[in-house]
Amino acid sequence: MLAPEPSDNPIGASIANGAQLAVDELNADGGIGGADVEISVKDTKEDPATGRSRYQELTVNEGVDVTTGVFTSEVLLNIMDDIAQQQTLHMTAGAATPEASARVAENYEQYKYHFRTGPTNARHLGQNMVDFVEAKSGDLGWESVAVLVEDYAWTEPVSAVLDEKLGDTGVEVAMSQRYASGTENFGPVYDEVENSGADAAFVAMAHTGTPAVVQWASQQRPFEFGGIHVPMQLPSYYEATDGAVNYGVTQNSATPQSEVTDKTVPFAENYNEEFGSYPVYTGYIAYDAVHQFASVAEEVGSVASDDLVSGLEESSYTGTAGTIEYYGPDDQFAHDVVYEEGKVWPIFMQWQDGNQEVIYPDDLATADYQTPPWV
User: Fold this and answer.
1) 123-252+346-364 — its CATH code?
2) 6 pLDDT above the threshold of 90
């Protein structure tokens, strides 16, 4: 299990705790093939070199049957050759770079041991943003948007999709900017958004998300705010920002109240009861990865990696974040989770008075979208 700083990082804690909860459930039900399941957690520190060292500890020193986790794309890409060399199944539960699946497609025999249980890859994250705008812009009243994307590697495929497809939705792209990765003062950026006349800032941000949303709210900027905002996915984020996140919108895999499947809410409640907080999206995915691994291992009667690879390629597993299936070896996104309605289809949620209310898709909606009162 590879997780960044699980002792004090909500992303890493959710990976480690989600997997632990799955292991506890498996062992309470007889383990895998009658054998107890053990878990080992290593801190990647979100550093590629550290991540590689920790991966080698798990596979070379401890001889684990499967690894999961990994939040940052840079760490994942740095261990791809090690995954190939060790020939140990890895099920990613955080990093979104499509370069990993491209390697599987281009050199299947070498890289076939990598699967991405979630989230959907960065190209599909961008496509999901386009699908959201196409479906909901009328309800939201967004006739034009200003695209703001932080300049990190993970957002490059997102930007590419938005550049290619967002204009085809009928919504005007008033401006588009990849802003500097170290941005802390959003005043000049927001001045440009205001001058563009956009109805909303349509964003993709993680590392810079907190100053961005706090300054938007505190300055009561006259445009709405939503897209992919990773910190906003945290169930504790309302308190962390003293309510500044109110009316902000973000894509997410699931929320504690969203009935993505019949497993979503029970998992969130069990997680909260066990750990005293609700999980971030990585918790749902890591939990699903462990259970899907166990399901396939039971079905094929083996934990040998080649057997597991074949089993996962044929697997259809309904977890907490959707029904998890994988693209085949010949697909450009080989071994990535399938992005499709009825399978894995991210939700969009809005913070409303301290609650993460689902506003899309309509069949999972728990509330209607609310326009910020100052806009």
Assistant:
1) 3.40.50.2300
2) no
